[in-house]
Write a structure and sequence with these properties.
single chain, 676 residues, alpha/beta, OB fold (Dihydrolipoamide Acetyltransferase, E2P), Rossmann fold, 6-stranded parallel beta sheet, 22 helices, 38% helix
Amino acid sequence: MNERTGIGELKGIGEKTEKLFHRLGVYTVGDLLRHYPRGYDIYEAPVPIDDLTEGRIQTVSGLLSGAVQVSPNRKMPVTTVKVKDASGTIKAIWFRMPFLRSTLAAGGPIILRGHVVRRKDGLILEHPEIFYPADSYQQKMGTLQPQYPLTTGLSNNLTVKAVRQAVEQLNLTTDRLPEELRMKYELAEYNYAIRGIHFPEDKEVYCRARERLVFEEFLEFILSIRKLKENNERMKNDFDIMPRKETDRLLRSLPYELTGAQMRVWKEIMQDMQGEYVMSRLVQGDVGSGKTIVAALALLTVVMNGYQGAMMAPTEVLAKQHFESLTELFDTCHISIKTELLTGSMKAKEKREAYARIASGESQIILGTHALIQDKVDYHNLALVVTDEQHRFGVRQREIFAEKGTNPHILVMSATPIPRTLAIILYGDLDISIIDELPSNRLPIKNCVVDTGYRDTAYRFMKNQIIEGRQCYIVCPMVEESEHLEVENVTDYAVMLQQELGNTIKVDYLHGKMKQSEKDEIMNRFAANEIQVLVSTTVIEVGINVPNATVMMVENAERFGLAQLHQLRGRVGRGKYQSYCIFMSGSKSKDTKKRLEILNNTNDGFKIASEDLKLRGPGDLFGIRQSGLMDFKLGDIYQDAKLLQYASEAAEWIMTNHQDWMQDLEKNEKNTSVIL
């Protein structure tokens, strides 16, 4: 057996299970090794009920007290039980699990492990794992149990068995990383790293294993970027692009003046497009800084010079919003341009007709999703490609987009505030422009960091905002401790909130397990104010513009990185109304409060990102969600900033001293998620 062996060759994986693994992108044993846990269940010793801390996963040991209660609500039965020990009593609740009444009927000693949350009547355990009889907990105590990304029908237990089998049967002693690099940066061997990431004996082993694998992931990414830069370097600019009076007309027709930063970046883009070589430029700008209008000017300029321009967004909802806003913008200033929307959900006939218009050149500006880079799409004379929210696209996707034309200009946009030192590494093939000024007509968002005792006050505040005609977001953190709780966390919160706010206010929810069409429908209804409160996981991080949304409340804010919280905050403050962001945290940690206060004190994304770099370290992994930037499987650019810089140094050394490693990289590109 080797890493290229099909997943179906493993014992216990039949045809049906094999297909489930395929859904997750796991086809070979090597893919399985790189299917890393998304978190770990840490089974610690039980704590006295009186010492429970809100917001944590904790274990209690005690006696069942009184009868098991099941609410009569058929749609959402709630099972309730009380557990007591020498220090006190706590209530545990489970949603949609009425059968527990008979399971727990015998009474006696029990161990429960679950999320400690605060409700009106005090602390409760929500959806705890049950160890009954109690001594079954001993087997797991003190261990770190891996929890894998799953799909419907695939259990965590089965995945654990498959990974354990692969680790035991494969020869993992060959190390791809040059010995010189491993020694220089004090990195663990490959064998140690793979075993330690999947089955760590303790937190220290996990941190060592992760460090090695993150370094390698960053190194492969940076080398692929450098290779891309070499391939694209000094591409001749064959497009004849001149300034056009239509862009001046558009600027005059705007109800506001561009900021100094917007004008500076627009001049840089114009210089690039008129230069000797094709443009490859990243425009970074905080949420609401006005990147879209700069992209619109660039697209308008290439079209008025007789070429096509295309802009790719990460979701259909966002692509549609770009299409509508650009169409309206050009109509307002009486500029005749044929815009085209191309998305995956369009009917086959609509797509064929769109393909024909694009191929003939009738469509001048094409807006869409990944559908823009499908094989069937042929452009007439594509001179400019724009990717919005770049961190949602892989490097390879950007490259494919560019290949649709004959060396078109590339403009990449990102609202993610990445400190310049890291941006130079991550976007090594691009020149960087920063829009570091917000429009003067923007009201700054008012922030507050509060503990969970403020929740009722927050609900009353939201209610008042809704009475005034406004809308609200509530963000729940991803639930890492359980394979099914993420969905329930959001849906149950929405049900609870609907009861709290009453039937005159429409509450709905959004989570990552929904189909894209369902997400789009919910977002469209929210945009139309058919939904007043949207409860969501971080899937709304890249969402549409809803100027009427004025309140963002983030539950368990301590579990997010600062940069991500800032991204989420950017969903409000997009209209003429005063907006508010409430960061709610049950943590009593001084360090946590210090981190969150940074958000309280500034709305500057770049300043926040820099502070995030200073404050976060690898040990934070157990308490804070990774940012998910650049689609890295393990790496986090803020948390692992030091490793990213080391990997950049190592890439230079490899390109000078180890060309054979570069060739090996090319053979293994499919193993690197970011490249694909």
